[in-house]
Structures are given as structure tokens and as C-alpha cells.
Amino acid sequence: GEALEVTREVNCVVDFIHGCEDQLQKLKKQKEKGLLYGIPVSIKDHINCKGHVSSGGMVKFLGQVMEEDSVIVQVLKSQGAIPFVKTNIPQTMINYDCSNLIFGQTLNPLDHQKSPGGSSGGEGALIAGGGSILGIGSDVAGSIRLPSSFCGLCGLKPTGNRISPSACSGRTFVLAVMGMLGPMARDVDSLALCMKALLCQEMFRLDPTVPPLPFDEEVRLRGNP
């Protein structure tokens, strides 16, 4: 409901992930509760979700429905999270604004005259507007950090290859800097919890190219006395 309200104002949601109600019912039957049990999570447009399109803001990809969830979405689900919406991006994602010819312009919920930043601008707008408490964006040259800054949020671009990029519709760009998926939220503790949940055996099993290093709470606390 909140996400609908926010997107009516700022145009940040591009799709609702069907099946999230079924997933909630499944979770209730599970004995073990994951670290993100019952938390609705918003997902940036280009991250593959089964049965949905990853448009990249480009018309040519609108007919390609994804046959399986990306690794990060599978891991989120295994930790009890409920991916519930996909959010807007600029066309091709190499942009610091957030508009494309399919879904239009996303506005900054703090000031409708301003941009939410990009390319994870739909995430920034939805979380800042109160429609999501945790989102997954991606960042090559600021695409998590800029919308987090523009919208007054916290965001993290993890170290390269820390989180599996597998099954994202990354149109292949030759870049000197590695693009990474990462969390966006309203506070640092939420980012830490999300990273702790993602860096689990399921992630390392699904993508053996990710170094099997769990989240180090001591390092985090040392950096945040």
C-alpha cells in the first residue's frame, strides 16, 4: 500500500512482483527463520526476477521474461525476505538521473523539482518516500551512492565480487571499475543486516566464484566505535 502511494507521487515502481503473497505463506511454514524474515525488499529493474522483465529502460528488452531469479533474489528469499516490487532506472543505467522512454521520469520525494539521482533512482525514491525499508541497487560509478545521497539515505557499494552479480541483465559494458549489487536503506544497521544475510552459505553455493567469506561483525564495529 505504501509503495503504491509513493509511486503515485514520484513514479518509482515499474512492476509488482507477483507471487510475493505465496512466498509469505511458504515462509510461515518454515521452521527456521532467516535473518530477513518477513521483510519486504524492493529490487532494481535490471536484477532478474522469475516471470518478470529486466528492461534496463530499453524497449528492445520488454519481451524477454526472465525464467529464473538471479542469485541475489534467491538468497534474499532463502533468508526470509520478500522481494515485492521492481524499481525505475535511467535508460541503459549509465546516467545520474532516473528516466527512460518506457516508464518516464522518477522524482525525488523530498523535492519534486529535483532528481532522485541514478541509476538506482527508483530505489532511492521509494525508500526515501517510505514505500520500502530495504532495497537492492547496483553501482559502477555512483549508482547506489548518488541516489542515497540525493534522497538522504544510506547505501553501500560492496567490494568487487563480494555479492554474486549472476543473472542480472547487465548489458555488457567494458568498464575499468567493477559494477556491484548492494543494499540501500534508511540507516547503516539495515545495510549491515542485509550484508550479513547475503554473505551466507546459500550465496556461496549458488555462485562458487564468490569468495566464501562471511560478514565480519568485528570489522564493522571497529570502524564504527
Automatic annotation (TrEMBL):
Residue ranges of domain Amidase in the record: 6-212
InterPro entries linked to this entry: Amidase_CS, Amidase_dom, AS_sf, Endocannabinoid_amidase
UniProt feature coiled coil, ranges: none
Pfam families the UniProt entry points to: Amidase (PF01425)
The keyword Hydrolase belongs to this UniProt entry's keyword annotation: yes
Similarity comment: Belongs to the amidase family.
Sorted UniProt keywords: Hydrolase
Secretion signal, residue range per the UniProt entry: none
Protein name (Swiss-Prot/TrEMBL): VDHAP protein
An example Gene Ontology molecular-function term: fatty acid amide hydrolase activity
A GO BP annotation: fatty acid catabolic process
